[in-house]
Design a protein that fits this description.
The chain is mainly alpha-helical and about 70 residues long. The chain contains three helices and no strands.
Length: about 70
């Protein structure tokens, strides 16, 4: 009886570790569909800059592109 209990406990423990590890991995990787691409982020930032300061937006975007080239 003690051996069965120990085997059951070991099985449950390993299953729990596997579930926690798998969940952590999936949480770290995330869904590819839910991740936003760099180009979309850059387009949003460009639009925000143009809305905030339309006069200097193009120059600011050009300077940012020189300092941090687009991929």
């Amino acid at each position: 009886m003690m051996r069965d209990t120990l085997e059951n406990w070991q099985s449950e423990f390993l299953q729990l570790i596997w579930q926690v590890g798998g969940f952590s991995f999936l949480l770290y990787i995330g869904s590819l569909q839910s991740k936003e691409g760099d180009e979309r982020k850059e387009a949003k930032l460009d639009l925000i800059l143009k809305q905030i300061n339309p006069d200097e937006a193009e120059e600011l975007i050009k300077n940012l592109d020189l300092k941090y080239p687009r991929k």
